């Protein structure tokens, strides 16, 4: 979906498509941050159990 919104924006200049692209980008960054924190938490638990 992110690729579509970017392509649509570049072809049309539609600001709504750009805003959708940026919103999806922010959500992806947030999800990546959550994944990293979850992995770090698992590593911390494993390290304390060893």
3D architecture notes:
There is one protein chain. By secondary structure, the chain is mainly α. The chain has one domain (2-49). It is 92% helix and 0% strand. Helix 1 (2-12) runs antiparallel to helix 2 (15-49). The longest helix has 35 residues, at 15-49. 4% of the residues are buried.
Short summary:
This protein has 50 residues and is an all-alpha fold. Helix content is 92%, strand content 0%. The mean pLDDT is 81.
What order do the helices and strands come in, and which of them pair?
Elements: H1 2-12, H2 15-49
Helix pairs in contact: 1-2
Distance between the termini: 43 Å
Question: In total, how many domains does the architecture comprise?
Answer: 1
Helix content: over 70%
- SSE string, helices as H and strands as E: HH
Q: What is the arithmetic mean of pLDDT? A: 81
Approximately how much beta-strand content do the residues carry?
A: under 5%
CA-based gyration radius: 18 Å
Task: Record keyword descriptors for this entry.
0% strand; single chain; 50 residues; 2 helices
